[in-house]
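Help!! Second protein's tokens look totally different from the first
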Amino acid sequence: MGGQLVTVATCNLNQWILDWEGNLARIIESIHIAKAAGARLRVGPELEITGYSALDHFHELDVFSHSLEMLSILLQDKSTHGILLDIGMPILHRNLRYNCRVICLDGKILLIRPKMWLANDGNYREMRHFTPWMRPRETELFHLPKMLAELQGDTHVLFGDAVISTPETAFGAETCEELFTPKAPHIDMALDGVEIITNSSGSHFTLRKLDTRLQLIMEATRKSGGVYLYANQQGCDGERLYFDGCAMIIVNGDIVAQGSQFSLKDVEVVTATVDLKEVKSYRAAISRGLQAATSNAKYQRIQTPFELAPEDDDADIEKRPTLPMQPRIHPVAEEIALSGGCYLWDYLRRSGTAGYLVPLSGGIDSCATAVIVYSMCRIVMDAVKEGNKQVIEDVKRLCKYTEGVLPKTPQELCNQIFTTIYMGMKKQSSRDTRQRAKDLAEAIGSYHVNLDIDDVYEAQKKLVVDTVNFEPRFKVEGGTVQENLTLQCLQARIRMVTAYEFGQILPTARGRPGGGSLLVLGSANVGESLRGYLTKYDCSSADINPIGSIDKADLKRFIAWAETDFDLPCLREFLTAVPTAELEPITENYVQSDEADMGMTYEELTIFGRLRKLNKLGPFAMFQRLVHDWSIDRKRVEGDTAPFYTPAQVAEKVKRFFHFYAINRHKMTTLTPALHCNDYSPDDNRFDLRPFLYPPFWKSWSFKRIDMELEKIEKRRASKTK
């Protein structure tokens, strides 16, 4: 029967697309750490050899040949022998591209297991790059290329859906999306006696997602029993996504080990010792036994004499099963701080640039972007104190490193790699916003530039006056709507050009070794992008936007949390300030307001965004939903914070939202790449694919149907009041 105490390992790896040798080095390091901890089985993330986000590079034959070359190097490295390995990579088999797990032992391949259910929703496009394996529990032969055949001592290995049988147990593999399907492979595996199941994932971060992921992973063994190993990527591997790690080991529905969700460690290995007897006992339920006995889902077992639980280990009384633990889940404000901070550090160090620049407006959005950069600096300095060698090397490259002295505080690091710039206008910019920007810069330590753009604005405006003999005026000065917009957009676009100008020259002007340039960060939140409440090619146009898929309410939660946790009392002023673009002159009777300009509140924008994307509602269906949710006639119950509107008001708001969404949709095609944080992001690149030229919504059949429904509702309401 063999021993019953098994030490297993899973990991978070910060891989980078097509970083062949770097990715391989991190894989090998994780194997070494797993072996040092006594593990006999190691599982890594999905597509760990290439990096998950290679996208259309998966169409290139080089990607498949280089992956095999990296596998060959790994198999020849004897330091990786003596442990079962579950490696993620793409495989070209009979001219079909597969997303595979390669199960190896002592320099030999035991099985190539292709992914069966591909992720093809939201940000995922696996069906564009791979073919699913459509034959459950079937295998065939894979013809090895010469370099692998020589190592294998054979020309073929098994390819397909099978499991590995050791003297004491059996383990099988499923990949990422397969866990989330209604009939996941682990169900049939468990009924067929497989006791250890590995899951290799490329699962990206969104706010509040971890709890859902945890429940699904824990549920995988809560009903059927077993040991479940979850591996994931962690970090930015070259795309808009942050992979949030959280490698974990679950036994019979209980977490016994959990890795970090956010970290600057390139390699993090999670190990646990599990007792296989606990799995056997957990599966003693009669109903479970009857289902297993009558199941026709029988897996081919590939035999190996390698012991996962050597009998000698049972005599080692120092070895004991790892105890269950409570899952660690960060509150949403902390998720924003940590995900944004870790993502920005990966992007900065891998881009080879000199730092970041943020245009500060004195409002909460640009404030949040700046505080996320400050969070990055805090995370980096914590890693430096912990002795993280890679982080220390990156800090040395980015900072003035003289006489072996590194920055000692987040503020010192911030001052070297982060610039904030306030670009004011004498008539439009208030003393309050200028002061708030200055106070924030002082608190976080950024290098701050305070300037006015009036001269540039007047010169550009004069170009129109001199050319067409017409002087545009603001609305408060008697100008038309088009004149007002022209002058607002002119200021906004001057700020974008100015931000890039300073971003390119400041590292040289400040004497940074090697010069270089700063990456410009954007600060348009998800609601403003969805509504189109921004100027095309203004400061929303940047290199990266860390808050581009976060709504105003969550940004306020983040700033309120950071005020206390980061000890930044100046943030209180940002929380109480009225959101304003400050693109129109301030008068005694008028101060521009974002929500007044938009004709809806930020809370309403969030609701519209969620119903449009997550609930998949068009204008008519959204009206049908909100006319009940926001009904002025409803009785308020505990927890009900929705507004009270008449049916006509609801109709007007829904129409207004879709009208502005449609006419501004073209702005999404040039939207700055944003860190993906929400499932209703309007990102046009790959997440929210829509046209950008719509027929007028006010003439549409959808709006006519709203009017018909409104008429029916009003008649019914009127009859009730008689």
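Here's the second one for comparison:
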Amino acid sequence: MHNAQFLRGSKLHKKEHSIRFGFFQVSKRSRKSPYRTVLKDTAIPTIFDLTSHLKNPNSRHRKRIKELTEEDIRRIKERRLASSIEQLHSKKDIEATEGQDATEEEIKLSAEEKDFRDYLRSLFEIVVMLGKQNIPLETNVPEGVERDPSNFQALLEYRINAGDEALRRRFEATAVNVEYLSASQQSRLLDVCEGTVREEVLMEVRESRFFSVVTGDLVEFAGERHLPLFLRFVDQSNALREEFLDFLPFEGDEASLVEKLETQVTDGWGLRMEDCRGQAHVATGTFATKMKAVAVGLMGKYPMAMHTPCSTCALNIHLANSLPFPSVQVVMATLRKIDVFFKQSPSLQTELEKAISVYYQENNEKAAELKEACISNWTEQHNVFELTVDLLESLLLCMDCIRDNENVKFPDAVTGDAYSIAETLADFEFIVTLVILKNALSFTRAFGKNLQGEALDVFFAANSLTAVLHSLNEVFDNIEVYHEFWFEEAVNLAGIMEIPVKVPRLFLRKNRSADAGEIPPETYFKEYVTVPVIRGVIDEVDDIFSQSNLKALKCLSLVPAIMGQMKFNTSEENHADVYCKDLPNPDTLPAELHCWKIKWKHRSKEVRLPSTIHETLQLSDVKFFPNVNCFLKVLTTLPVLMLEDSNRSETSRKRLQTYLSDTPIKHRCKSLAVLHINSHVKHDLDVMVDKYCRLYPEDEPEHGVEAEISTVVI
């Protein structure tokens, strides 16, 4: 009896072993371990190998392969040799034809046309240099002062004097003090340069197919507001990139913006919105509400363009920016002002550190912690509201000292900014709103920090969202109790700072004529701040973390290190349907996922589990798992995921910020901005010349416009 049970158990074990490793070649299974079967590093699943059965004559249920005679082999060799000779002759004919065409094209160009192309090439070299170095076209000359030549004109003259023959021949007859090129001709050159550089990026996006759209905060050009547009995609080296493409005019209502954005992506860039897999919008103030409506409109047309937070913005800051309540927006605007204020000069930062030392002189450890936190970009951190509450007294003291300016160290503009910030900090409405934001968003702080972490952190964050929402709803259900504690904290803080507790003056003025009695401050701030903030946070979290979003993020378990962390007890197949239509072979997905899991579960001990999507995509054998490969490429384009090589990938965003901070509004130029931000993108001057000649054939020398080009004045 015992022997029979043992034999049955042994058969079951062999059957299970066969099922588990049946997709891998026998030669790729290592028998060195006495306890288990270990896959070799080169193990490849044979489920996708359509030729392996030809090498196994003993395989069952296969058609018998015909044995070839010597005569058959001879005939096959003759056919292959004839085919190779024919292909070789065909290739030589094509090369000869191409060489002849190129020679004929060179012959067709007259001396004047060659000279014209050399002239254009010199112009494009100057334009590209202006863009890369962020040099404006015009000089910075105040009104009423005699104008110097423009920067563009000065560079043309410099090149002529340096021996550029093409430019010298073109402009040698031009009168003194006359601009060589008109504003319209400069605009043409800029448009061609901008379009050529953008097309280099777009070619890579088209090759990768899937992408996500990311927009930045509004910027101003020539008195008009524009929306910066970025695209996220995986390039041919399997690296995730985020590149800047263009500025979209921010005009019209939400429906109009949706149509403009869609038209720009499809007609302007030649992409398909059906291939857009994500969207994120970094916005502030009333602009945030409008962009939220744009996101909803795009998802209505293209459900796969999932709306997510942007990885470059802390989740708590995103949530606060999305709340369309005046008191909340005052807090967020003040934090942005404080950030800009202290970046003006190191001496201002020194004043803040002095104020911290005064208020925390009995707690040196806390003082050192706050000083360390304030060194860089503290207004953009996950714990910004906690930090601001701790720093509030020090900030007010610092602003008062700068405003007094006893030693006349600061200019009037700085003291004016300090006065404005101090007036806001000393208002009870600001204090109570800040305290409510600190406490309400404490429930999402750890969740948001994980979202900006490694792939494993994001995976755990996706699985913890239910608990986060449960906590927020529990607060909302017991809002009376929570508000009482939060309001008391605000009152105590205001008392220390000697700030009176009162209802906002604007509310009293608006309700002065009403018959309603006087409303207590605690009741007012509960109805107009605490309740709307909690409700708004819950709604926003629900919107940006829909079921589709969570399904996608839970598929991060495809990353081998996450599989290992979960003891290979993951269920990707339950969530993989979110991108099923994007896969090359969706029918084989369950079997492929099984092979993928077995490959890493039974690896040799020396093999390290890749911990990121980027590392996984760099594996040489990931191509043997086509569905997994495609799935990870689509998943990584979601804007909520951090750019793994941030120093390289965030170059475009950093260059945009640098351009905006270094360039006065009146000197900003959209085309030069695109060239500057994309200075790392390769460019071909000959392509620019060809494109210009194709777009503006009337400028060719045979049309007799040389005189017009050299005499038009800006």
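Reply: Different proteins will give different token patterns, so don't panic. The chain has a mean pLDDT of 82.
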